[in-house]
Specification:
alpha/beta, six-stranded mixed beta sheet, 11 helices, about 20% strand, elongated
Length: about 375
């Protein structure tokens, strides 16, 4: 097993390095158009640091939690997004240079290079705005079940916070402020609260921020594939969530104030921790299905199973809607729904693109968001 992991890492690094070399070659060639004689170590050493900044920061942050490492990771994360779009743009740029050269244009590489730079800066700026300026998406849904003293239930949902080295206290405080202004009855967090590592959560005292949520029926969450909920870190994760005022539901069904039945499933990644994810129907055995049944399941799969089990509302995240277009063309084929809302008779499902982000603090073709749900119940 260790040999296969090492081989996979080696193959990844080889492919990654070849891609970086290709991008760097284009950059050096363009700089020589601007400044004859430019290049060499004066270009390649800073470029190599930029190209591997995120990987270096990620590896070192396992042992060290320091501000310079966070800055290195953030720089590298922006480069990761730039790399994706350069891989897409450079073949077209090469073709444009060739065609302009055939047409007799002077210095076509210089002109096309500037076009690539302007387009890239524009994309990064636009994507950064989408990532750091979340929006609230509103849904009003009717559930044909009797209300327990209230005709409506207001639910705030925020998935995929990815709190860690890049997403921190300031972003979380904004979420708490905006959610409290909504005056929800219930706050639900459908997975990926953390970004693999618990250390930044503890160091930045994010539990103090989480305790700022105000909801009559409480704050509940489920695990996501980036939450360290198993293995040696499982107990520390559970303790951190408990200290945050968050009730983690790990394959559990809970009666919430006599007003709804809440189901929280372990993420599908549970197997890597040696945990077995329970089937949905046994989880609902004995549950009061006369009340609205709300299910949190991080990955938006198994809609048919949820509908057959009598779930009224399923809440998921995970997909980030691809985060960087055209990634959404892939996610829409991998999941039952990769973003938005769908209904099938009495069954409703909402998939959020997430409040945070993974890797680059960039969103293109998606937007950081949280969800406002008003459930209308029968009188």
């Amino acid at each position: 097993m260790k040999g296969r992991i090492a081989a996979a890492i080696a193959i990844f690094l080889l492919i990654y390095s070849l891609l970086q070399w290709g991008i760097g070659w284009h950059g050096a060639a363009w700089l020589r158009q601007l400044f004859p004689g430019a290049g060499g170590a004066a270009f390649w050493l800073p470029f190599a640091l930029l190209a591997y900044a995120y990987l270096i920061g990620r590896v070192l942050s396992v042992r060290f939690d320091a501000a310079p490492l966070r800055a290195l990771m953030r720089l590298g994360a922006y480069w990761m997004a730039a790399m994706v779009y350069l891989i897409l743009m450079l073949p077209a740029a090469d073709l444009a240079v060739w065609l302009l050269g055939l047409a007799g244009a002077k210095s076509p590489a210089l002109f096309v290079g500037w076009c690539v730079v302007v387009a890239l800066v524009g994309l990064i700026g636009y994507g950064s705005w989408n990532a750091w300026r979340p929006v609230a998406r509103e849904f009003r849904l009717r559930v044909r079940k009797p209300a327990a003293g209230r005709g409506t239930l207001r639910i705030a949902v925020a998935s995929d916070l990815h709190l860690g080295a890049l997403v921190g206290r300031r972003h979380l405080r904004r979420l708490v402020r905006d959610v409290n202004a909504f005056e929800p009855d219930l706050v639900l967090l459908p997975g990926d609260l953390l970004d693999d590592d618990l250390a930044p959560f503890v160091k930045d005292k994010l539990a103090d921020v989480f305790r700022g949520f105000r909801a009559r029926l409480g704050v509940y969450a489920v695990t996501g594939n980036h939450d360290p909920f198993g293995g040696s870190g499982g107990a520390a994760f559970a303790e951190a969530m408990a200290s945050s005022g968050i009730r983690m539901l790990m394959d559990e069904t809970l009666d919430v104030g006599g007003e709804l039945t809440l189901v929280g499933r372990l993420d599908r990644s549970a197997g890597r921790y040696g945990l077995r994810r329970a089937d949905l129907e046994p989880l609902l055995a004995g549950a009061d299905r006369r009340r609205p049944v709300v299910l949190m399941d991080h990955q938006p799969l198994g809609f048919a199973e949820a509908e057959a089990a009598g779930v009224d509302l399923m809440l998921s995240g995970h997909t980030h809607r691809g985060q960087l277009a055209p990634g959404h063309l892939i996610t829409r084929r991998l999941f039952d729904l990769d973003w938005g809302y769908v209904s099938r008779g009495a069954f409703h499902a909402i998939v959020s693109s997430g409040y945070g982000f993974w890797g680059p603090p960039i969103r293109i073709g998606s937007r950081s968001e949280w969800i406002q749900i008003t459930l209308e119940l029968e009188a």
